[in-house]
Amino acid sequence: MEASEACSSHSSSLDAHNECPYREKKSNINPCTLMPHPEILNATSIDGISSPLSKGLSTERESSTIPKVTAPGHVDETWKYPSPRMFYHALLRKGYATDPQDIDSMLFIHNQLNEGVWKHILEWENFMQPNATGRCQPLLKSFQGRPQKLSPKAWFAHKFLGADKPFDRHDWVIERCGKKVRYVIDYYENGVDQSGSPTMNVCVRPALDSIESIFYRFRRFLDS
C-alpha cells in the first residue's frame, strides 16, 4: 500500500443519472460518461441485438454517496449506479460474455469500488484543503474509462520496475469551487483473500495537470 498515492486493497463505472446536465438530446451517447444513456442500456436489446437473457435482470438503480454537478434547479443529487440490466448490457457492449446470474455480485463489487475511490478522492481533497472552514465540497462532474491508455505512473512502474499493468483505468473530473480537477484511478488485480474472494488494488491521485496537483502529490510523497 502506498499512502502517497492512496493505493488500497478492496475485496471483491458509475452510470449517469437521466438528468445529466450536459446531455446531448440528439445523441445516444451520454457526454458525462461516454456511454449510452440509461434508457438505452435498460432496454431488452442493445445496438439492435436482442438479449433475452437480460429480461430477468432488474432495472432498479441504487443511489451512490457521490454528489454530482447538477443542472439548474436540481440540488443535493448523487450519482446513480447502473441497474443490473444496464450493467449487463454495458459488459456486452465491451465484448465480455457474462452469465446473468453473476451480475448482482459483480455489480456489488463495482459499486463498492466506486465508493472506495470517492473516499480516496475526499482524502486528497481534505489534504489539499486543510482549512475546514473555507473548504468547498467536491462534486463529481464526469468520468471516463481509459483501459488502453496507461497513466504516467503505471507506464513508469511497468517499463522500469517490472510492475504489472493495471487492468483498468478511469479518469474522474471533479468540480471544486467551480474549478475542474482531474483524478486518475488505476485498478490492479491482487489475487484472492482467505475466503476466496478476488481483491484489487486501487491507486487514486490527482492528475499532473497543474502546479497545485504536482505540489501536493510531491508533498504527500514526502509525508508518507
TrEMBL record:
It is found in: Mitochondrion inner membrane. Residues 1-20 are annotated as: Disordered. Its EC number is 4.4.1.17. GO terms for cellular component: mitochondrial inner membrane. Keywords: Heme, Iron, Lyase, Membrane, Metal-binding, Mitochondrion, Mitochondrion inner membrane. Pfam families: Cyto_heme_lyase. One of its GO terms (molecular function) is holocytochrome-c synthase activity. It catalyses: holo-[cytochrome c] = apo-[cytochrome c] + heme b. Residues 1-13 have a biased composition (Low complexity). Belongs to the cytochrome c-type heme lyase family. Lyase that catalyzes the covalent linking of the heme group to the cytochrome C apoprotein to produce the mature functional cytochrome. This is Holocytochrome c-type synthase. It comes from Mitosporidium daphniae.
